[in-house]
Specification:
This protein is mainly α and about 250 residues long. Helices cover about 60% and strands about 5% of the residues. A hairpin with a 2-residue loop joins strand 3 and strand 4. Helix 3 runs antiparallel to helix 9.
């Protein structure tokens, strides 16, 4: 089946999103691009009254239509996937610090030649921010693990490994993962079901983390020379689309 035929089959509902992304990647489309196709062409979004711009980004909802809610079990599975991404980000940070240097004479010297960056080295303030990022990501991971436990979910799970070739590669992959995380919150938060105290606390926790990670993504985007805020509206990524982005990094 050609790419054009796949798109037609997906739009008409003859194949689901997972199959669409899988078949596109088999045709040589990168995981990130396949996820973007699935997002912008999703028939469920069109049927739900979402208005999108030319890039497929959600602009507004028509006639008060909302995002569909998901069962709490699916929400917990998505949270577990987010924890896996946070683990990968923390691993990339450790690799980055290993690439760029170590403590010396009471002051950290993190100079490395940055081909992808528009600078010769990371500034002291950049390094301090990266250390703060490392601390915050760990706390965010812990908060999501607690949220899963509060609902009786299993916080254990396999974490795939994303490795970096050098400092530039580590920062680039961190940027990709953080931007994907921000997109995942756009789809996750409106899908959390219920109004009870525990659910409200979960929604507040996830919203708070999503807002901070948007700022973290902006910072890392700047480090690699990308726009700090690339889109006016953030595409809402599903768990499958997030997984496709990660799979693309592992290749």
């Amino acid at each position: 089946m050609s790419k054009h035929e796949l798109i037609e089959a997906y739009i008409t509902g003859r194949i689901d999103r997972r199959d669409f992304v899988r078949r596109l990647t088999a045709l040589g489309v990168t995981g990130a691009a396949a996820a973007a196709y699935a997002h912008s062409l999703t028939p469920a979004a069109a049927a739900g009254g979402l208005v999108r711009d030319a890039k497929g980004n959600i602009v507004r909802l028509q006639d008060g239509e909302g995002y569909g809610e998901l069962p709490i079990e699916e929400i917990l599975a998505i949270l577990a996937a987010l924890i896996s991404i946070l683990d990968q980000l923390l691993s990339l940070l450790e690799q980055l610090f290993g690439f760029v240097g170590s403590a010396s004479s009471g002051a950290r010297q993190f100079a490395y030649r940055a081909v992808a960056l528009q600078a010769d080295e990371l500034s002291d303030s950049d390094v301090a921010e990266l250390e703060t990022l490392q601390e915050q990501l760990g706390l965010q991971r812990d908060a999501l693990q607690t949220a899963i436990s509060d609902f009786g979910g299993d916080v254990a799970g396999a974490t795939t490994s994303v490795t970096a070739d050098d400092g530039d590669d580590a920062l680039s992959k961190m940027s990709t993962l953080l931007n994907a995380l921000v997109g995942s919150y756009s789809g996750l938060i409106p899908a959390i079901p219920g109004t009870g105290e525990q659910v409200v606390a979960l929604r507040q926790t996830v919203t708070s983390i999503g807002l901070v990670q948007a700022r973290q993504a902006s910072f890392v985007n700047r480090l690699i020379g990308d726009p700090s805020f690339p889109d006016t509206f953030e595409p809402a990524l599903t768990q499958d689309e997030l997984a496709a982005v990660v799979a693309d990094l592992e290749d």
